[in-house]
Amino acid sequence: MITLVNVRPLSGGKFLSNCNVTIGDDGKIVAVGNQTEGEVIRFEGEPVAAGYIDIHTHGGYGKDCMEPTYECIDTIARYHLDTGITSFCPTTMTASPEDINKAVDNIRKYDSRYARIAGVHLEGPYLSQKAAGAHPPHLLISPLDDDSFVRNNLDIVKRVTIAPNVRGSAEFTAEYSKKGVQISLGHDNSIDDEIYPCIDAGATSVTHMYNCTSRPSRRDNPKKHLGLTEVGLIDNRITTEIIADDRHVANTLFKMIYKLKGYRRICLVSDSLSVAGMPAGDYYIGAGDSKQSIRVEDGVAVLPSENTYAGSVTPVSKMVCNLIGCGIAPAHAIYMATKVPARLIGRKDIGDIKVGCLADINVLDKEDYSVKATFLGGQEVRYRR
Length: 385
Hints:
Layout: E1 2-11, E2 14-15, E3 19-23, E4 29-33, E5 39-50, E6 52-57, E7 59-60, E8 63-64, H1 70-82, E9 85-92, H2 97-109, E10 116-117, E11 120-123, H3 148-151, E12 157-162, H4 169-177, E13 182-185, H5 192-201, E14 205-206, H6 228-234, E15 239-242, H7 251-261, E16 266-268, E17 281-285, E18 292-297, E19 300-303, E20 308-311, H8 316-325, H9 330-335, H10 339-344, E21 361-364, E22 371-376, E23 379-383
Parallel strand pairs: 1-5, 6-9, 9-10, 9-11, 11-12, 12-13, 13-14, 14-15, 15-16
Antiparallel strand pairs: 1-2, 1-3, 3-4, 5-21, 7-8, 17-18, 18-19, 19-20, 21-22, 22-23
Helix pairs in contact: 4-5
């Protein structure tokens, strides 16, 4: 056993007074209180939180989740653990079904020694041609064309992003949400008449709100319809993914979302690319037919040919610090990186400091809440000296 002595755990969304967290030999939390057993690690009243969870990430340290090699996923898992992420969902790009299957199978076979794999997130190819973002438009399809790479990978696929205006989206959502897949709506050109059937069918989130999410628009008559952005803001059934790097979503805009949704319906995601953790310069994302040229400059990745963001290079841990720095309550900012993503992917054993949860724990700085140390299953794996 190990006991973390004199810490302030974030449990159930609130910081507790200074106490101890005891970890059993099975790597799970066995007590939160005054108990002291086994090896003692003493702290000085630092806040501690569950390890952060990133359910939308494409890579890091120069590796992309679409690369079907052990080294690729191993490197990405190490990148995440180095940034305070203890569980993550490797996220695929739009590609041919064959390339997606190769990437998913590679992830399935990987036994992580770093951050835990919490299932695959398929971002595409069920996206809108008019909101493809960094996804290759010529590879976008409807689930009516092919859903085999979802159907055949239900053991590992945890999330799928789909655009509500893609043919068959509501039927796909109904079928696969019942099979345990978390459906997120995004990269769309939808109107409310298409969005609500997907939510009614079981969709529970919006993928990276304000980035390739539709706005109010008209179709073939003067009536103006809500887009996915507005529906996501007002429908309490929906949790909004936010890339809180002050670029994809400016801090001022985040405060509006926070006011409308509340911290329990916001999920922080990095949407990190392979170039996360790498120096500024020119790189590529994706692999095979989906490979694209990007540039990292001024703390963000851009598509030079499109003059738009390609994705983030900011880890979730820095997003938490950013939000706290602009006035968001620390408990709320951390909750959005722990409890909310755990709930979305249906995990009750991670995302909180409580008895029975895995002892995946971040020890935080008392001043700026940056990650000082990380424990994975009760073992200290990272320490900022």
